[in-house]
UniProtKB/TrEMBL annotation:
The keyword Transferase does not apply. It comes from the Bacteria. Residues 6-60 form the HTH lacI-type domain. PANTHER family: LACI-RELATED TRANSCRIPTIONAL REPRESSOR, TRANSCRIPTIONAL REGULATORY PROTEIN. One of its GO terms (molecular function) is transcription cis-regulatory region binding. This is LacI family transcriptional regulator. Keywords: DNA-binding, Transcription, Transcription regulation. It comes from Cellulomonas oligotrophica. SUPFAM superfamilies: lambda repressor-like DNA-binding domains (SSF47413), Periplasmic binding protein-like I (SSF53822). The keyword Disulfide bond does not apply.
């Protein structure tokens, strides 16, 4: 038995027409005579012919494919986002492709340039592009941002309220008697990090805290030892890390140096990724609804692609909350 899938050429031969005529009959109804079109469609039905995705894309200009662009595919922070966008896109007939830009704005720009014409739109998570490039991109490709806004409301977005979570962390530490706290900052290109820094000074003034900003650091476990050493040098009693991976590295370094957590130094992370409750001591951290953010982002993009979405305006803002575990405790008596 021949299991070969029928081709457009097979349909043309069965209908007694040229391949170009068969293509027009199937992809552009009304361009040829009704009798010839009916003959071609009848041949396609008898042979069980289905146009390929690439053929449909050529005829319609749509690929039914959406790119999810993330700075680091190995960071568990994005796992929930991938699940949320993937599930919602599947429900609406789209295929998701995952693009890793390795924390590089240039790699992100190159990837997006290469994707034009191959995807219908893109969801940009924690984009490292500057404002000008984001605005230009939004004028060339339907995009939705996660944890980033586009100036002028040029694209819809979903924002995680991590500044509120950082304030909750500072309030928690103040309630435990801490007065000297460090913030281990994330990458210079991180929009989310800049928003968190903006709330540090007013929150510290209100709570009577002295907050020192350390870094910037890569949002990686391997950057944690440097942040831990800097916190000890600064003689603080608590450290709030940009993300959980950085906090994991901090905990490892403090253990290696014989510094008890939280007796000598309390540590707070951000993201509540897988493993935050498995490290020792279990990590106090800010929890973010990433899967929910992914579903919202996919809904916004699908609505935009279908022409049913409202004009871009204020982003959808999702709340965050502090999860208190064993890595924070009362300030040491000195």
């Amino acid at each position: 038995m021949d299991d070969r899938q029928p081709t457009l050429r097979d349909v043309a031969e069965a209908a007694g027409v040229a391949v170009s005529t068969a293509s027009r009959a199937l992809s552009r109804p009304g361009r040829i005579s009704p009798r010839t079109e009916a003959r071609v469609r009848d041949a396609a039905d008898r042979l069980g012919y289905t146009p390929s995705a690439s053929a449909r894309a050529l005829s319609s200009g749509r690929t039914s494919t959406v790119a999810l662009v993330v700075p680091d595919v190995t960071n568990p922070f994005y796992f929930g986002l991938v699940r949320g966008t993937g599930a919602r896109l599947r429900e609406t007939g789209y295929v998701q492709v995952l693009v890793d830009t390795e924390e590089s704005a240039e790699a992100e720009a190159r990837a997006l340039a290469g994707l034009r014409g191959t995807v219908d739109g893109a969801i940009l998570a924690s984009s490292r592009l500057d404002d000008d490039r984001l605005v230009r991109l939004a004028s060339e490709l339907p995009v939705v941002t996660v944890n980033r806004t586009v100036p002028g409301g040029a694209a819809p977005g979903v924002v995680l309220d991590t500044p509120s979570g950082i304030v909750q962390a500072l309030e928690h530490l103040a309630s435990l008697g801490h007065t000297r706290v460090a913030y281990a900052a994330g990458p210079r290109t991180s929009w989310s990090d800049s928003r968190r820094r903006a709330v540090l000074e007013p929150a510290a003034a209100r709570l009577g805290l002295d907050v020192t900003v350390l870094g910037p650091y890569a949002p990686l476990r391997t950057a944690g030892p440097a942040a831990a050493d800097a916190a000890l040098q600064a003689q603080v009693t608590a450290l709030v890390a940009f993300n959980d991976l950085l906090a994991f590295g901090v905990l490892e370094r403090l253990e290696a140096r014989g510094v008890p957590v939280p007796d000598q130094l309390s540590v707070v992370g951000c993201d509540d990724v897988f493993g935050a409750d498995l490290v020792r001591p279990r990590l106090t951290t800010v929890a973010l609804p990433m899967e929910r953010a992914g579903r919202h982002a996919a809904d916004l993009l699908v609505a935009r692609l279908s022409g049913l979405g409202a004009p871009p305006g204020d982003p959808v803002v999702l709340p965050t909350h502090l999860v208190i575990r064993a890595s924070t405790g009362p300030a040491p008596v000195r």
